[in-house]
Amino acid sequence: MYIVGLAGLLIDGAACVVDPRGRVIAAVEEERPSRVKHASMRFAGGLPYGSLELCFRAAGIGWDQVDHVGYFFQPWREFYRMSAFRLRKAWPAPSVAAYYGVHHLDSLRGHLAVPRFLSLQKGYRAQFHNLSHHLTHAASTFYVSPYESAAILILDAMSERESISFFMGEGTRIKLLKRVNFPHSWGFLYSLFTQYLGFRPNSDEYKVMGLAAYGKPTFLAEILRMIRLQATGEPSLDWSYFDSAFRGPRYVSDKFYRTFGPPRHKDEPVTERHQDLAASIQKALEISVLSLAKDLHRLTRAKRLCVAGGVGLNCLMNSRLLLEGPFSEVYVPPSPHDAGCAIGAALLIAHQIRGLPREYVMTPASLGPEYSDAEVRAVLESCKVRFSQSEDIEADVADLIAQGNIVGWFQGRMEWGPRALGQRSILADPTRPGMKDRVNAVVKFREDFRPFAPAVLAEAAGDYFLDIKESPFMLFVARVRPEHASTIPAVLHVDGTARLQTVDRTLAPRFWRLIRAFADRRGVPMVLNTSFNVQGEPIVATPRDAVRCFFSCGLDALGIGNYLVRKREN
Prior knowledge:
DHBP synthase; Nucleotidyltransferase, domain 5
């Protein structure tokens, strides 16, 4: 009676398990066990084997107890719907046509191989379902939200063909209202500018979002001419800016470079022009999405909005939707990108095929594996690490942070989604002016323009931040109250905002106690919170990952389970 959801053939592979009552009981991205960032199912050998193993371990089941498998894509629909577009763009160049043909067929082969790989698993007897990609996105946000009814906005690069979709959710029903097809796509456009600015597309879009705060939207008019926004917000690309055959990875024409200048290479310094370009594409996205939201509201008259798709990770966009859009409430799940479709696929089967009622809300997002103190101790001893057992790990770590130490924090079940939410985190003192630069330089080894998030006690968030009342998944940006700007410099972005996480006492009791203890010592009810990893690596998943990461960077201490490891003692 269990249901498995799978997602991510080419990027962000993931698996999840839904129990007989329709509740998500385990979900893991493949990058965590594989230790390869954005690892896909193809990378893992056709299935997200590592994620499945961890999910089955958490659920205590095997394949013989799984009745249904939901897959996040309909490959034959994509093959037929995209063939005409690819042929139309490739016909002038036989080499391009050959490239598209081989790539297109190889992608189809990869999707069709998934059920064959599943059939080889011991005890496998489940029914396999290919599901619409955007529909699984819609399910991944609406079915885990607290709303009985809501409008749903999906924004990503592309699905089988769609790039933007409107849905309406009512109870267990999700109805498609409108769609915009690739390549008129915000996911594609934002990734294009990510690559143009010298970062990795489909991976580093958050860097562009962070860089945007340093610039001015001086290229906004040119971008709006290139994307030709419709009155209802949809982009409609002006093809004169793009390669006639739409060949990757360049995609663009000489007109694009004449308009925006030469691309930035990876190791080149970031200039004012690059900052302005980032600000301009971010501003264009926000203008477009606010118009899309108004059109969706006109069609649905709904009070609440659910958002998903990879563009849903854009915190600035989410905040403007909440504060300036026509909806009174906005919900974004912790994993709106393709990995989240694993949950969406499983819940679609639970509610639309098996007819189960909705009783699950994703609070909190701790859906990964958990390790006992005995397992943690065994790893520490096998690594010959000197450690001590703590009688009050929250108070001890709060002491260390208050003294200016940077501490790794490994507790409970691993978070679902790309944000560390207090289970696999690096923590520091937000009140120290030099702490942001120190964490960037000696721990994260990343660009100095990227900010860190404050994890704040939920009941105190309004004392320090404006506009945003609740942000448990770190997916909204709030303005810092002016009187506190000098109080928390390490988590204040250059534009006076912060991507905050609100920590609820009932949902994250251990993390809440740590922050409360820190507040007793420094007078501020928050800590600097960033993911427990170094640049280029996924967030740590296991105790052994945590120990390895701890000794590979400038962390001062590690609070893991009820044990404390100090760098100076090792």
